[in-house]
């Protein structure tokens, strides 16, 4: 009964390992390369202001930044919290880093305010500009500079915000079809925003009719700059185009005029993904070249190949026929590890860094140790006078318990390291943990089955030079 079960386990191990490897290769999947292998930039953003150390706010900020990067089209990007108030952003293979830096850090705090006063550059007394740009000043009067072309040095004194960017449901960059050059961002509002927008513009239209040219303007403010400050258009023509005092602007639509295509698209992107709930400052920006990582990887491949070759040669000399189990077992281990990393890369966005590869190399050593533990345990059983079959059966059973305990300790260390560490160290811990679990499965389903089946094969278990009896030191 056991022999049939071992055959089943062995066949399933080989089919799952190499069948899934073939499927992954056919699908074109492969482990994704991290920042140090493909190059790019690494950014640490420091949260400031109220809520900077609030985990929920930081998680929301991470989610918004991830959405922006996804729409920017940066493949294999990673965004995660680092410490209590930092956010780590890794952008592999990025070409236009300045654009990405601007988009990632843009708070995108959008407000609609009534203009109270326009202060020209020639004013004798310069206004005290409001430093805060976040939602904490939404209910306050502020002074912000103009961000409009041709208005350098102009400041606006603005009433408290009437609407915020939370009412935006759609933001799209559009070009003037008549000129093909003037770009703007078209905005759609939700129902609540549409009603408030109609009421707001109705009030401004009435102020216009009363001769208040300045106070009838609505300022659209983005991150502490007045992007647009337009008055209410007077109704003209038979069609009654314009804004009336009785109705305002209905339909919940407006637009922000910007410079060119790139500015319009970037602004639409940050407005679509939403405003960041906190202010971020670039604490560290590092440009990573793939050359050093690839050189290190190639050196690691060479060292790994030499080391693996020596291990296999040692196994062949010392354990004779049992070396066949080690060779095939390492191939099964490598195939399953490759498939797991490829699947996680495609489904969860896991990127493999040099630290992660180091974790895999360490795990290969752990796997080799598992074979030595198993074979030495079988040797001990054989030296008590048992037959080869009996020694293998009892020794492999006890060896697996030892392997399980050892791998449990390694896995626990990897889990603790993963949750306490940040950056590349987490990659090391993750790959080490994954490989440790795979080692346990290979030891139970493949190694145990293969050794037991070899022990029941006369030409392998016999007294020949490569036979198991000689490897286990069984005499007589």
Overview features:
Alpha-Beta Plaits, 476 residues, 4-stranded antiparallel sheet, elongated, Multidrug efflux transporter AcrB transmembrane fold, alpha+beta, 3 domains, 5-stranded antiparallel sheet, Gyrase A, domain 2
Q: How would you describe what is shown here?
A:
- By secondary structure, this protein is an alpha+beta fold.
- It has three domains: 2-34 and 288-472, Multidrug efflux transporter AcrB transmembrane fold (Up-down Bundle), CATH 1.20.1640.10; 40-105, Alpha-Beta Plaits, CATH 3.30.70; 110-265, Gyrase A, domain 2, CATH 3.30.1360.
- 52% of the residues lie in helices and 19% in strands.
- The chain has 13 helices and 14 strands.
- The protein has helices at residues 2-26, 35-38, 55-72, 97-105, 191-209, 261-273, 290-319, 322-347, 354-382, 388-420, 424-455, 458-461, 468-472; strands spanning 32-33, 40-48, 78-82, 86-92, 110-119, 142-145, 155-164, 168-175, 183-189, 218-222, 225-230, 253-257, 279-288, 351-352.
- The strands form four sheets. A five-stranded antiparallel β-sheet has the order 6-7-5-10-11.
- A hairpin with a 7-residue loop joins β8 and β9 (183-189).
- α8 runs antiparallel to α11.
- The longest helix has 33 residues, at 388-420.
- The two termini are 29 Å apart.
């Amino acid at each position: 009964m056991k022999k049939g079960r071992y055959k089943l386990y062995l066949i399933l191990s080989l089919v799952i390992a190499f069948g899934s490897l073939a499927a992954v290769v056919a699908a074109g999947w492969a482990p994704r390369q991290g920042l140090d292998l493909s190059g790019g930039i690494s950014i640490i953003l420091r949260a400031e202001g109220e809520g900077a150390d609030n985990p929920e706010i930081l998680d929301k900020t991470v989610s918004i930044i991830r959405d922006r990067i996804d729409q920017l089209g940066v493949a294999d990007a990673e965004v995660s919290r680092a410490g209590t108030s930092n956010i780590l952003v890794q952008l592999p293979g990025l070409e236009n880093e300045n654009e990405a830096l601007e988009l990632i850090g843009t708070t995108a705090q959008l407000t609609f305010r009534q203009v109270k006063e326009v202060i020209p550059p020639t004013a004798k007394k310069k206004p005290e500009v409001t430093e805060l740009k976040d939602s904490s000043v939404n209910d306050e009067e502020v002074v912000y500079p103009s961000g409009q072309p041709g208005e350098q040095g102009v400041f606006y004194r603005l009433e408290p915000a009437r609407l915020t960017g939370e009412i935006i449901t759609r933001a799209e960059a559009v070009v003037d079809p008549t000129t093909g050059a003037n770009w703007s961002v078209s905005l759609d509002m939700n129902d609540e925003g549409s009603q408030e927008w109609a009421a707001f513009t109705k009030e401004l239209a009435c102020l216009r009719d009363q001769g208040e040219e300045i106070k009838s303007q609505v300022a659209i403010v983005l991150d502490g700059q007045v992007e647009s400050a337009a008055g209410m258009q007077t109704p003209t023509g038979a069609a009654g185009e314009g804004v009336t005092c009785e109705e305002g602007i209905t339909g919940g639509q407006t637009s922000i005029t910007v410079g060119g295509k790139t500015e319009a698209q970037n602004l639409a992107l940050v407005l679509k993904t939403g405003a960041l709930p906190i202010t971020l400052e670039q604490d560290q920006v590092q440009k990573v070249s793939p050359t050093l990582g690839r050189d290190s990887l190639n050196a690691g491949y060479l060292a790994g190949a030499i080391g693996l070759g020596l291990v296999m040669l040692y196994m062949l000399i010392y354990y004779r026929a049992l070396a066949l189990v080690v060779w095939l077992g390492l191939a099964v281990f490598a195939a399953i590890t490759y498939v797991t990393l490829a699947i996680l890369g495609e489904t969860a966005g896991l990127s493999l860094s040099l630290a992660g590869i180091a974790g895999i190399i360490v795990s290969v050593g752990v796997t080799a140790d598992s074979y030595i533990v198993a074979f030495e345990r079988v040797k001990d059983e054989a030296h008590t006078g048992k037959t080869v079959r009996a020694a293998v059966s009892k020794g492999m059973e006890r060896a697996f318990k030892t392997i399980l305990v050892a791998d449990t300790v390694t896995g626990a260390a990897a889990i603790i390291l993963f949750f306490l560490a940040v950056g590349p160290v987490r990659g090391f811990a993750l790959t080490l943990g994954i490989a440790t679990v795979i080692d346990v499965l290979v030891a139970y389903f493949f190694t145990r089955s293969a050794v037991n089946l070899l022990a029941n094969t006369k030409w392998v278990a016999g007294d020949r030079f490569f036979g198991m009896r000689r490897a286990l030191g069984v005499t007589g």
